[in-house]
Amino acid sequence: MPEGGCWPTMDLLRSEPMQLVQLIIPIESAHRSISYLGDLGLFQFKDLNAKKSPFQRTYAIQIKRCGEMARKLRFIKDQMAKAGFLSSSRSLGDTHITLDDLEVKLGEYEAELLEMNANSAKLQRSYNELMEYKLVLSKASQFFPSAERSAISQQREVEEHILGERSIDSPLLLEQEMLTDPSKHIKLGFVSGLVSREKSIAFERILFRATRGNVFLKQVVAEVPVVDPVSGDKVEKNVFVVFYSGERAKNKILKICDTFGANRYPFTEDVGKQYQMINEVSEKLAELKTTIDIGQLHRANLLQGIGYEIEQWNLLVKKEKSIYHTLNMLSLDVTKKCLVGEGWCPVFARSQIQNVLQRATVDSNSQMGAIFHVLETKDSPPTYFRSNKFTSAYQEIVDAYGVAKYQEANPAVYTIVTFPFLFAVMFGDWGHGICLFLATLYFILREKKLSRQKLGDIMEMAFGGRYVIMMMALFSIYTGLIYNEFFSVPFELFGRSAYSCRDSTCRDATTMGLLKVRDTYPFGLDPKWHGTRSELPFLNSLKMKMSILMGVAQMNLGIFLSYYNAKFFKNNLNVRYQFIPQMIFLNSLFGYLSLLIIVKWCTGSQADLYHVMIYMFLSPTDDLGENQLFAGQKYIQILLLLSALVAVPWMLFPKPFLLKKQHEERHRGQAYAPLHSMDDDSFELEAEKVSHGHEEFEFSEVFVHQLIHTIEFVLGAVSNTASYLRLWALSLAHSELSSVFYEKVLLLAWGFNNVIILIIGIVVFICATVGVLLVMETLSAFLHALRLHWVEFQNKFYEGDGYKFSPFSFALIGEDEE
């Protein structure tokens, strides 16, 4: 392995060799060491304090402190968003601010903003109240005199009505009251203010009922919506004046106003004082407006200054919080002067980690350096594949099924080629492939700009898989050239067709057929096949047989990879009793079928392969007759059938019994190990492990597992081969849909000889092509290719029961937040 900062060549087939490491770091350099390891991003810490709650850990106070700073930053960001400011990536201040200084600064900014918000809210409320007051003064003065006169006359009518219904003594008393002081009898009070227009009818009704009609209400509509001082929202309101008589009525009116949220404002009957009050309110409004504008300007300048630094502060707080979270995973040693940590790292990163720890020791002026110690362990290490922007999407496709076991063969290496190819077999049309390629090319050429933007869920997914889609498009162009389809239209790109009509009119082409006048078309399908009577039977036969050949080839690849896995892990049992019988069973049946397909193509035989395969099982000893493709075929079929039958018990029985025998031998050998080779404690520990391992082995469970695995493979060999016929079905569906859109939309519109109809036809054709063929069919073919890889290919060799290498890295902080 290269030393230092030099990275070895990327190897996707096997995960990087990993090692379990113990780090002993002095407390004075622990923070800086973890920080430098976060910058490196190649060390995955194990939590040594898993049994402790978050509040019992060493650095709980520091994490709480960082959480409080993060809250203040969120508050400041919310204030910036409300003010319409965006955070800037460029920094104008000190780029090396400490956490303590940042904590003080954030506290000052938060207090200042809170004070500004409180003052601004008070000033704005006062301003809105004065605006409403001004509106009341201008509106209420219009109807005040007439309303009072109407109220007085109404009161007199009521009194006269009551007077007529009194007894003989009543008029004398009433007459005496009226003669004493008439002005006092008709003196009315009033309440003025604003009420919401949608509540005005209910407000009037409740006033009438509560006072039994002994009030007079006058309302006028405010033309412009006003800002409510309490809620701060623009509300359509009415100006009202309520005339009343008596303190009880006044108290009821005030309570009803409070209930309906009606804002009351004082008003005077004196016209001169009214104008004076309007002038005073206008002056106060002008002063408040100036004060509010100055405050908003000061607040905007403060937030703009913060905007240049807030991203840097946010990143610093996230880093510090992640550092303390990591420090909490380390345990204190007995002396409480060092922190002990354990974790996984790639073997190639050993020198880099040691250099980082040494640099942290020097920078923190520590007298004792950190200790890097490799531990021996039987734990399964995490899986780590170093990928780039091209291979990462393929690795994600595989990891979605399951993360590879440590050092297990990685299907992503083969998926890079097989996935886009199987997609293209179903999507083959070089016109559609070019459209897909151009769309992907836009993502690739603008990837730096688009990677910094938020694209939405669907676009983000498409952008992340841009290189997968590019390969799918390129393979689609290739298979489209083989199928000779450009939006379902054939072209003579590689020469002229090998066939020609019998005469110039081509009337008998569909009945009598064509004549072969030239050599075979050099590449792909001859263009003359399109539109002929035998096109569909020919393409069906061709694509169906191609699907079987591709399926058997990919399944054989999967079984071969199981052999390389077994050899790598030195598991000879899997080679002898899994790989060999599986290869025999699959190829005795479907490998033989693939051979028959190739022989039939090469010889031009008319043999019925369905008949051959069916009667290979039903009547293996019967003569094949006209279905015989080569000499000795009957005996070869019998031999292959017997081989397939023998392969089933070969897979089922030997492996469980041999595993049981190995376990018993291992247990017997460890139980009688010489005592002088270990002390008492280690002997007891080893004996405990042996007894524990002996209890774990259950022959019945192993046998049932092997039985299930055998049945799954035998049935899967049939169902998986049939599953590959989806390549034929999807390819046929795509071709026929493309042909329908071309003939029934575009050509039909062209035949009307009308420009408007032609334009409509072109628009419909484009929409159908994009919506159905380039979006829905792409997604459909993608999902079917995904299924073929996950189920038919990967289940032959891929266990996928590992776990990902998740190093402590500052580069992942932003991604986790998103």
Automatic annotation (TrEMBL):
It holds the Pfam family V_ATPase_I. The chain crosses the membrane at residues 421-445, 466-483, 546-564, 584-601, 635-653, 755-776. The keyword Coiled coil applies. The keyword Mitochondrion does not apply. It is a multi-pass membrane protein. It comes from the Eukaryota. One of its GO terms (biological process) is proton transmembrane transport. InterPro entries: V-ATPase_116kDa_su (IPR002490), V-type_ATPase_116kDa_su_euka (IPR026028). Residues 99-126 form a coiled coil. It is found in: Membrane. Its main location: membrane. GO terms for cellular component: membrane. Keywords: Coiled coil, Hydrogen ion transport, Ion transport, Membrane, Transmembrane, Transmembrane helix, Transport. Belongs to the V-ATPase 116 kDa subunit family. This is V-type proton ATPase subunit a. It comes from Penstemon smallii. The lineage of its organism: Eukaryota, Viridiplantae, Streptophyta, Embryophyta, Tracheophyta.
